[in-house]
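Could someone model S-adenosylmethionine with this protein?
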Amino acid sequence: MLNFSLPRLDKDEELSSYLRKYCRLRPGDIWEDKQSGHKVGCLDATDIKAVQKFFGYDKAVLAIQDPPYNLVAFKKRNVQNFIKWCVKWVQTSDMVLTDNSSLYVWLGADQKNNLEPFADFILMMKSSNLNIRSFITMRNQRGYGTQKNWMSVRQELLYYIKGNPVFNTKFVYTDIPKVVKGYFKEISGKKTENLERSKSDKIRAGNVWIDIQQVFHLMEENVNGCFAQKPLKAIERIINVSSNKGDIVSDYFSHSGTTLLGSERLSRICYTIDIEPIYCEISIRRIENYRTNGKIGWQNSNPFAEEIAYDKKLKSYLENKYDITVPQNL
Ligand SMILES: C[S@@+](CC[C@H](N)C(=O)[O-])C[C@H]1O[C@@H](n2cnc3c(N)ncnc32)[C@H](O)[C@@H]1O
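Reply:
Sure, complex below.
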């Protein structure tokens, strides 16, 4: 099996500028999918007019937002400026959500730095139109800060709602079988054990998710070049629980296109945006690759493999700088 990966694109502007010429979208452009009705916009999530135009009269029942809280650019910003920026994309999210809808926000809580920006974000959200409903923690397999501290393995996921949104409880279960017995309760005069009473023989995910593997390079869903991919299983859990087939799901920080792919697989319509043309292109290619090859990522390859193979300049750049061997035949 060939292993033809890409380095992190956000860390290499020269490589990114080579790749941008292979991207369909320029800033301001919108791609409309003829097959399932998805849209990908190369837009700024905080630009009210651009987002309004992108949605037209359409509204989403679910927004899944994963802002770049840990990018170098944001480390340079202080937390107040970061929060001011969040206020803007929360407003543009709210603006296109129906009266009965859900907003999920992935956010970091840096234990080396006053748990920023998590605490500041939840305080700011108290004055938004959305109400907090739950605070989910997903357990990562890799972490940081193991020297004289508890390793940080948390991924925080905030769940906000407006009105009375859909919540499909049949999808809240994990794949983990229930094994603990002995919780007895009397029902209509009969002593019942908890397994007899429950709707499923699997345990509920609850608001601590321990059953989802963090994305890493050996997984089929891995998208080489991306650096902040969320697991498809987590995104599909959210989509299944908080929307129905045919609903519009929005994601303003598309990156590797996980929400777009999850929406495609679960028969939702995804309106997603990213400010960077390369991530818009990767997102589009991710569903195209899924439709053509049935693959959910590029474990041993990358989204620009074909272009790299025939673009001599790009090929020699990668071979010289990263010691990547570009395969002869793809
Ligand atoms: C943390 S990643 C999202 C990861 C995504 N959930 C996934 O599974 O691949 C954040 C993305 O937000 C994009 N971004 C940053 N600022 C933005 C803005 N103002 N508007 C739209 N996208 C932005 C970045 O280009 C990056 O791709």
